[in-house]
Every structure is written in C-alpha cells, then in structure tokens.
Amino acid sequence: MYEELRGYGFTVITVALDRSAEAARPWIEAAKPAHPSLIDTAHVLADLYNIVNVPTILWIDERGRIVRPNDVAFGTDTFKHITGLEAARHLAALRAWVRGEATALPEARARALQSLPTDGDQQARAEFGLGEWLYTRGRTEAAGRHFVRAGELAPHDFTIRRGTMPMRGIDPMGPKFREMLGAWVQAGNPYYRPLPE
Amino acid sequence: MGALDGPRGDGVTETKFTIIDGGRVAEVGEREGVELAKRAEAMGRPVAVARDEGVAYLGVSARERAKVLASLEAPDFTLPDLDGRVHTLSRHRGTKVLLVAYGSW
Questions:
Q1: Using a CB-CB distance cutoff of 8 angstroms, which residues of chain B are in contact with residue A76?
Q2: What are the CA-CA distances from residue B52 to residues A42, A139, B14, B17 (Å)?
Q3: What is the ipTM of this complex?
C-alpha cells in the first residue's frame, strides 16, 4: 500500500507502543518497512493523541492537520474473524484520499468524531509514566503497582491494561488477557472503537 | 536546621528525589521534589508519586491535551527508530501521513 501510494506525496509512520525496541524488533524486521517505523516505550503518542488501544490510525494532511481522528483499521484481514473489521474498506478510503479523488472529513465532522481525554485518562497516563520510568530502572515491583493503578483509573485504556502485561510478567495473549477482555465485553463495552461509516 | 535541610546543614544528607516532567528528568532534594509535585497538582496537572522510590511524574492535564486535539493541529512528536535515528512528524509537512499506532502485545 505504501509502495503504491508514496508517489502521491504520502508516507506511513508506524509507532510501536512497546516496552522496548527489542520487543518491537521482530515485527519491524519482518515487515522491512521503507517508511519511518518508530518505537515509543513511554507512550508519548498515546498521551498526545489520546490513544487507548491498538491498532489506532489517524490521517494527517499536508498542512499537519488531523483530517481523520483516531480510528481502528487493520492492514490485512488476518484478525477479521475476531474484530469484524475489514481491511479493504479503510484501504479504499485511504487510497482515494491520497490520490486526491476524495476529500477527508470536514473539520466539524472530524472534531465531532474525536474522543478527548478526561482527567482520569491523564491521571492514568501519569501513573503509567511513573511505572514505565521505574520499570526501565529495574524497579519492577513498584512499576507493577503503578501500572495496575493506571489501569484502574482508565479501564478502557488497553495500551495500559494490556500493553503493560509483558512488564508485569503476564502473557498479553494468554488467559489473563482473555479474562479481562471477557469481563469488559460482558459489561457491554467495546474493545475496538472504529469511527462510524 | 533539620534533617531535610541538606548536606550543608548539619551533615545529614537529604534524600534525593527525581522529578519527571515532560520527558525531562531532574534530581532534587526530597522536600523540593514533594513541593514541586504539590504545586503541579494545584495547577491541575496529573501527578503520580512513588514516595518510597523517591520519584514523581508530572503529566499534562486533560484540558491542555483536549485543547490541542480540538484545534485539529496534529501534535508534533520526535521518536527513535530501531537504529536509534530520530524522526519528527512535522518534518513530513507537505505530504499526507497515515499515522499507525500498534503494539506487539
């Protein structure tokens, strides 16, 4: 997709919200991307853009303006049976926008679709930030306490609740995750929050 | 002078305290650190403190973040790639950008 569209004045920037460059390395090396592929251990991007789960995508135009706020899209249909989200729909829309065949969202619409952070979100991110700092200095137990606290403050933030699992010695694909997800969904909450059509 | 007055007071060294503020890290005395954290909280900033670990993290308020996002101006950031080379979003002005956040988890 990037190869196809780069001639139109377009780039992809991927950002891994991962505990270390080493955790993200196998993914990046397998994909061998020609576009910037960045590592964000401190979740700087999540804090700036109020990102609460992955994958999250945004479109940013030539003037540096957000023309499609936080949305969920996959590059392939590998997880379609779980997510119910089709890759093709986003790809078609993206292709049309990049080629100039379609405009992105009008400003008022983009604004209406944004989800803005609450005090709880930001308090959770401070607890995460503290935990991450402690974790990188080997103070794993103290870090774990702040990661848990962060998850309690923002139970919808899976960059925290799931993203910190590897730093708490928990398999993020394992039974603890499935248990968390089950309880969340059972309570009527969405795990992915794609924008409406 | 009490024990919190620092090394030059009565020979008692004050416990060190770390303040993490907007990606910057500062080492201060414990009393000053706690004071800084309190002040940030009074200004409406989210603050996380690990008193036992001697460290506090000063975050950015929801109001501040929401103001920027609602302007639709894409917040700028600089992050490293696998080789440690840093990239800045605003360097891509003039091109359309698909920004993708993902995780190996």
A1: none
A2: 22, 11, 14, 10
A3: 0.95
Contact B104 A23 (CB under 8 A): yes
Band of the pLDDT at B4, cuts 50, 70, 90?
very low
Among A133, A185, A192, which Cα is nearest to A164's? A133
Give the separation between CA A195 and CA A60, rounded to whole angstroms: 16
Q: Can you give the residue range of the structural domain that contains B17? A: 3-63
CATH superfamily of this structure's domain A2-113 = Glutaredoxin (3.40.30.10)
Beta-carbon separation of A18 and B56 below 8 A: no
> Could you say which of B69, B90, B100 has the minimum Cβ distance to residue A12?
B100
Domains in chain A: boundaries:
2-113, 119-186
Contact B104/A119, CB-based, under 8 Å?
A: no
pLDDT in tens, A101-156: 999 999 999 999 999 999 999 999 999 999 999 999 999 999 999 999 999 999 99
| pLDDT of residue A74 exceeding 90 | no
Q: Does some domain include residue B23?
A: yes
A37 vs B58: CB contact, 8 Å cut-off?
no
What is the pTM (predicted TM-score) of this model? 0.93
At A80 the pLDDT is: 74
Buried b (16+ CB within 10 A) or exposed e, B20-49: bbeeeeeebbbbebbebbeebeeeebbbbb
Name which of A73, A65, A70 is nearest A107 in CA terms: A65
Interface test with A, best of B20, B51, B98 (most A CBs within 10 A): B98
* B47 found inside a domain: yes
H/E element holding B39?
A: helix B30-42
